[in-house]
Specification:
By secondary structure, the protein is mostly helical. 38% of the residues lie in helices and 0% in strands.
Length: 212
């Protein structure tokens, strides 16, 4: 009888083990800037007037005489230093160019990332998740624990921090497909520390609250 009881307990333990829910975070997907602004309203408002937010517009043909002249001058200067197959046209629409979209949209080429202006308008520009990673999982953590979650927990849920890892920024700012790179013109050399100090680049860096 004791033997049967032990076998029964072991069977129950094994059954429970295989039916426990996984503690690993699910595959993260993109939620867009709208998915972040509920808790980060001030940062979102600041981002909307930043260069990152306007990154997608830079792929579009210029509007008005003033914009055309400005872009024409910029492109003409660049073309003097670019290779023949890299030459730019200031009147061209680059909003569907596969070389441009990875750094002018959120998550292009990845599951749940930018597809087109029509399908995924909320992922145009360099949004929150370009610097912090796809947010579906760590957004749940933020809502569940608010100010008590730790940075380690956020990272485990897929969050990344451009402010502590320059590779996050360099994937676009030091990109061989970009015509605006240091070997083309020294003025495009990327200085990570200087970049972090520029408030209007993305949003102000506020002192963190809580444990994260």
């Amino acid at each position: 009888m004791l033997k049967n009881l032990v076998i029964g307990i072991l069977f129950l333990a094994v059954s429970l083990f295989f039916h426990l829910p996984s503690t690993e975070a699910g595959e993260a997907s993109y939620i867009g800037t709208d998915g972040c602004k509920e808790c980060h309203k001030i940062e979102t408002e600041e981002w909307q007037s930043s260069k990152h937010a306007k990154a997608f517009k830079r792929l579009l043909p210029p509007e008005g005489k003033k914009q055309k002249k400005k872009k024409k001058r910029l492109v003409r200067t660049l073309n003097k230093k670019l290779k023949k197959d890299e030459q730019l046209d200031h009147t061209k629409d680059y909003s569907k160019d596969k070389k441009c979209l990875p750094c002018h949209t959120v998550g292009y080429g990845k599951s749940g990332g930018f597809e087109s202006v029509e399908k995924t308008p909320g992922l145009m520009g360099v949004g929150c998740e370009m610097c912090h990673g796809p947010g579906s999982e760590y957004a749940k953590l933020h809502k569940a624990k608010e100010l008590t979650f730790t940075r380690a927990e956020a990272k485990a849920a897929g969050a990344v921090y451009g402010s502590e890892d320059e590779k996050v920024c360099k994937k676009c700012h030091v990109n061989p497909d970009s015509p605006m790179r240091a070997e083309v013109d020294e003025k495009y050399k990327f200085d990570y520390k200087e970049f972090l100090s520029l408030d209007k680049t993305y949003h102000k860096r506020y002192p963190l609250k809580g444990k994260h």
